[in-house]
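Forum > Structural Biology > Help requests

Title: Can anyone predict the 3D structure of Porin?

Hi all, first post here. I have the sequence for Porin but no way to get a structure on my laptop. I'd be grateful if someone could post the structure tokens.
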Amino acid sequence: MNIKSLILGSAAALVAGGAAQAADLPVAEPVDYVKVCDAYGAGYFFIPGTDTCLKISGKVEFGIQNGFVDYRGVQRNTVDEVSYYTETTIAFDAKEETEFGTLAAHIEYDDNVGAGATSGANAAFDKAYLQLGGLYAGLTDSIVDFNAGLYYDDFGIGHGDLQTIGYVASLGNGVSATIALEEYNGTGIAGLAGMTAPSLAARLAVKQGWGSANVAGAVYQSRYWNGAFSADVGYIIGGEASFNLMEGLTFGIAGGYEDGYTNDGLGNTWSKWAVNGGFEYAFADNLVFGVDAGYVDFDEAAYKTWGTSAQITYTPVANLEIGARVGYEKTDFDAAAATDWDDVAGKLYLKRSF
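Reply #1:
Sure, ran it for you. Structure tokens for Porin below:
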């Protein structure tokens, strides 16, 4: 045996031994890395091991305000005039494609801590709903909700957040039609008894390059605490539109009329009507100014409220907004014995969104 044969034999033995030892080593499982999902816009990623795309978003807002309280005749010393507040929102959106269309779910949790309050004191799931194609169900905005005012919420008219099931049909060219059964029952309104049937609501909407518009209405029960009276039919109808007047300038207007949102318990329903609107102009991509105004008339309650506000927002860096707002609101009572009142309000805030 020569030296060359000895070296080759030794090398073969080492390779064989190494292969045998390698066969005994544990094999690492494949790793599922988080992957970007670009099918639904920015921010979505695949939940590892699934076809579901998830987006997590939210905000943290801190502000100092004076006024901006919907007193509605309440004595001023019963509410804070000057207060700090911290408002947080966290939202989850999950989407994936199916043979019946996009399957989606949205969960949104809000917490608003004002002066003297503790965390969670005003926390709630503001929205929680699912969608499959045009079908949707859960807790979300009513389709009869009209408010084009930018900053004050007092002058809108509609049914706000509620539980509902509905269907949105796309008619082409930016036009859609919605029909829904909504759980509106005048919650928190004295004078209404519990409902025995859902509200039937419908909306026709359009969204194109010039802006957007919708008209909607609903019929529902207006039941009396006093069982001697049969339930009446309550109804609401209204509309809302937004117009892109020129580059950077938009104008919105909304209004509606409702009869039966509450009653006197003696066979008489109460009604109200409202109108509101506002302009918003972007001086630059990061500097926006807006002004709005609104009016609401509570007929049988015999008072009227109107107001106006203005706001300027500055975005020094992406996702950080600094804002200042001022406003004025006045309530006039029809009865001579009632005292009219007004409110001047101001607000400064910081908001970080993600």
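The CA atoms of residues 81 and 242 lie 33 Å apart. Residues 3-24 form the longest helix (22 residues).
Shout if anything looks off.
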